[in-house]
Amino acid sequence: MRAIALPEYGGPDQLRLTELPEPKVAPGEVLIRVRAAGVNPVDWKLATGALDGLMETRFPLVPGWDVAGVVERVGLDAGEFSVGDEVYGYVRKDKVHLGAYAEFVSAHVQMLARKPSALSWEQAAGVPLAGLTAHQALRRVDVQRGDTVLVHAAAGGVGSLATQIALAWGARVIGTASERNHDFLRGLGAEPVTYGAGLAERVRDLAPDGVDAVLDLVGGDAIEASLPLLKKADRIASIVDPQVLASGGHYVWVRPDSAGLAELAELADAGKLTVHVDRALPLAEAAQAWRLNQEGRTRGKIVLTVD
């Protein structure tokens, strides 16, 4: 199969389009013919060796945890799916080796759900990691109907999905973003505020009594600025800064979850969740996709397509 791989830890310049054997399909797994793979910051951070202390990695390394595709083969005791089913998933295994930047990837059924019919292949590939991250973080801070939720970096991949999920659950969302993304957030149904100095005062103008929950996607000053706005100090979750634990908040590292993916698919098919694909590039241009992602200016998601 064709795949994008690294022979050793490195950056975009080390990515190579190469030929590798198809992945083996273990009991409980299916083989997926990849139609699109999502690009996430963790892909290139892991490839640099930054997560070497957390995750076992084997080379050649095929990056990618987000996939949308068609079931090509069903392994033993994997009757949840059949050949030809359209699926999407967050394929994060115990050992990082053969990921989604390839023509085929194997995945346990617990990492997958049926692809939402309302989304294109590219949009579906942008959901799993970001969507589950948002879903699990919002659950961790117990977002309920009627809550006011502050989402930092609300125009990004995780933030835009978190905004839509919270709104679908009946919450009000105030989202931080640069001014160029304010209309985008308004289109999602959020109330935008500019990040930076004076953020707390700008949020207070919209929510004089403070906010019920905070989702931090940037870390650092965002957490410090958010704490005085919270009605209860423990209703803050961060996906980037473990220091949030010192204030009684929650640090979230997303987990594969087929039930969560199914819920996200239901929201998408009900017209309550969509994905803005900032750029869709062919598999061979993975290095360019990483460079764009590293710039940190993406609105929504970058994905790779596989013919």
Keywords, separated by commas or semicolons:
307 residues, alpha/beta, Quinone Oxidoreductase, Chain A, domain 1, Rossmann fold, 2 domains, 7-stranded mixed beta sheet, 9 helices, globular, NADPH:quinone reductase, GroES-like_sf, oxidoreductase activity, ER, YIM1/Zinc_Alcohol_DH_Fams
Structure at a glance:
The chain is α/β, with parallel strands linked by helices and 307 residues long. The chain has 2 domains: 2-127 and 275-305, Quinone Oxidoreductase, Chain A, domain 1 (Alpha-Beta Complex), CATH 3.90.180; 137-251, Rossmann fold.
pLDDT average, as an integer? 96
Large-scale geometry: globular
What gyration radius follows from the Cα positions, in whole Å? 19 Å
Task: Name the CATH superfamily classification of the largest domain.
Answer: Medium-chain alcohol dehydrogenases, catalytic domain
| Number of strand segments | 17
**Number of contiguous helices:** 9
First-last Cα distance:
12 Å
Largest sheet: 7 strands, mixed
Helix fraction? 25-40%
